[in-house]
Amino acid sequence: MIDRFEVIKGDITKQNVDAIVNAANTSLLGGGGVDGAIHRAAGPELVMECRELHGCKTSQAKITKGYKLSANWVIHTVGPVWQGGNKGEDELLATCYRNSLELAVKNGVRTIAYPSISTGAYRFPVEKAAMIAINEIKRFLETDSSIEKVLMVCFDEDTYRKYLEICGSF
Ligand code: AR6
To answer: Is the pTM of this model over 0.95?
Structure first.
């Protein structure tokens, strides 16, 4: 199972995988951070398809094509905004990972890359988010045999180190 999950440092838009996950907002119409980078790399057709989806609730996931990306699919999920930890943030974040993985499997995705959902503009503490992300992905891989590879793509050094550290402790 361990070889089916890997933490790397890099740019998610450059990954050669079947699907990349977007840390979107409820409008699904784009934004800053990884969302902005994915929309820029995919081209304007992505937002056109997103408009047809009429938004997405926090912790839910929706799928579109990848357009100019090397990935065939973009799975958009909306992480929780960190509000101190007593507003169900942990469970909402865990549900993002579960829902996006389920949607991936339904669409025949075998390789998938994740950004660190909610730890940028949404201010979720990175160590806590890493625990939740890695726990959910590993639990999913234990019961699923169709996903061949899950990459956790960390953009900055600090996030990368924290995910590596948490991954090593599992
Ligand atoms: N590849 C991988 N990770 C990236 C990239 C990239 N190209 N660019 C940034 N990151 P954020 P959130 C990292 O703020 O906290 C948007 O405006 C970034 O360093 O993108 O879920 C949406 O529209 C951080 O570690 O997402 C929403 O409004 C991680 O991705 C809101 O931000 C997540 O940071 C969502 O906030």
So the answer is: yes
